Amino acid sequence: MSKKILAIVMSIVLVCGVVCAFAACGKNAETNDGTTEAPAAASDLAYIKENGKMIIGITEYAPMNYYEGDKLVGFDTEFAEAVCEKLGVEAEFFIIADWGMKVNELDAKTIDCVWNGMTITDELKGAMSISDPYVVNAQVIVTKAENAEKYKTAEDLKGATVAVESGSAGEEVALAAGLTTIAKAAQSDALLEVKSGSADACVIDITMAKAMTGEGTSYEELVYTGSLSEEFYGIGFRKGSDTAVEVQKIIDELKADGTLDELAKKYNLTLAE
After folding, report:
1. Across residues 79-102, what is the average pLDDT?
2. What is the pTM of this model?
3. CA-CA distance, 139 to 230, in Å (whole number)?
4. Closest of 227, 203, 232 to residue 136, by C-alpha
């Protein structure tokens, strides 16, 4: 073989090697034991900043996220907007039609976080990266005022029909207590079931119960009675997301400068220690 031909062959081999090396970058790498591991994930924070917005998954309920006219307001609305301002991106809110699908919406990147009075549970900790607790909550029984003495405990609800939000902490508590439940898409729908008489009671967040029931409210014929559990709200991000770390830093700043305390007073909420 002539030197000229040999040089051409060597050049082809070199080019092929480079192409193969680049192609390998887009595939799973093989480890020493023959298994494969996925390539390192890109920065989730960089993805959000490149988009110039954080898409925030919510449902509508007072006092966390709700409308006054055509303006979205509420504790979580203002909280998220304050964090996004410091993050340098726009806060864009997306209504999750089925709360039980929140993890799927997050993983599909339909949303970038779940920020709507989400109760921290062990199951969600396994599916998301969750912020430190920021608000104290409880699951309470809501019923018609005329039944206030009748339904105060989980035991009282045995044999009754109880409306709950699908995929919620309220549903989890009710099922754990062995109650007969009707699963609805939102907590507001659970309240409607009680108001209409289709359910004897519902189990919802105390934050919503305070804002939506009793004299002068949308459901003034309803009252909340006993508490079934105490819990905490957290913000959910994609599992392993570096956005969770950065947002937590900003939250700590908002706690330190008194912003969160003022918001909690405005919306009658109790901050987690």
Report:
1. 97
2. 0.75
3. 7
4. 232
